[in-house]
What does this fold into?
Amino acid sequence: MFVHLLYSQLKISSLLPSNRNRSLLVHSLTKELGLLSTGKNHLAQLRILRPSPATLEDLSSYHTKDYLEFILNEKNFEGIDEYSGPSDHTEYGLEEDCPYFQGLSQYVRMIAGATLSATKALLDGQTDISICWDGGRHHAQKSQASGFCYIADCVLSILALKRSRITESDGSGRKPRILYLDLDLHFSDGVSQAFASSSSTASQVLTLSIHHASPGFFPASPLATLSDPSDPSFDPFTLSLPLCRGASNATYSRIWRIVEQVKDAFNPDYVVVQCGVDSLSGDPYGIFNWSLGDGDGSLGWCIERICSEWGCKVLLLGGGGYNSPNAARAWAYLTSIALGRKLSLETDIPDHAAFPLYAPSFILDVPAGQTQDQNTNQYLSEVEKHFANIVRVLQETTGIVF
Ligand SMILES: [Zn+2]
It folds into this structure.
């Protein structure tokens, strides 16, 4: 098996104002932990890809011409270094949490190019698992930047997968099914909206977002509430599973049964996982209390199940995560899982330039904190009830019954 890790041009991917230098930390820790070595005895062989920037044609498969002409033309921002105040750029969302920054057009092309190169490696049959930690920009809209996201790389990737064909054992071809699973603290509004439909006919794409939702919490979207099959606008292929504050391994362990039932009912060929780590304990948002570890329900446990037990081709993408050293810990650890070389959580952070940032623990683990899990048995039972009906609808629609 091969795992392809996308190494974008780190100086460019590190420009993102909300996550300045995070990409450098992530990729340097991955390297320092020895994960880039390719010994013959390793279960998986790692190939590092250096992506080319996305072309206008690539980006146009989703984004509008007006948006691309605006965001890719540096002349529109002449004389500006970085700007987030009121401006005539608001039409395209370039304000507040999505300021213009120098290098924006290069950043957009590089991030989209990195995720698309990772996708292509799966499509070409070169690998079973592709990783692009700089991707996962799940809030970007067709013609607007939003929520620190300027380019909808997840959508571009799913569209590329959707256009491909699966060859069956008898030589016949069919369209692939793609499951998009979003583990970020925030609802995947950009991706969910892009593929939402109220049609009951089987869709090629199913989106499932597990996130926090409460009044005033970003992003405000009617799709971010608990999916309800009795709702007239219910779409079994656009699913939302909001969790209350303090969500811990115990809660994720319980809802993971639902995730796997949805996966089994949909029977995907490809799984695109947005691994935003603002849902981990220690993130400045401080909302969930999820841990990186390898116990049941932890992020590592979930990703290990996807990579080793689901039997699909997997694209792992990054996303949110505002404690940069913890994001580096998490994505390096998930890389080790994808490679079948799972590191111990007690692994010492190697001595390298960024070492002081890993104080005070100086180890790989991102443990749970003290926040109480407010996902009550009553709430989780309601979630289970809704999703039992959803799984039935999916089985009827897809014709897959277990
Ligand atoms: Zn987020």
In short: The two ends are 29 Å apart (CA to CA). Residues 184-186, 276, 278, 319-320 surround zinc ion (CB under 6 Å). The chain has a mean pLDDT of 92.
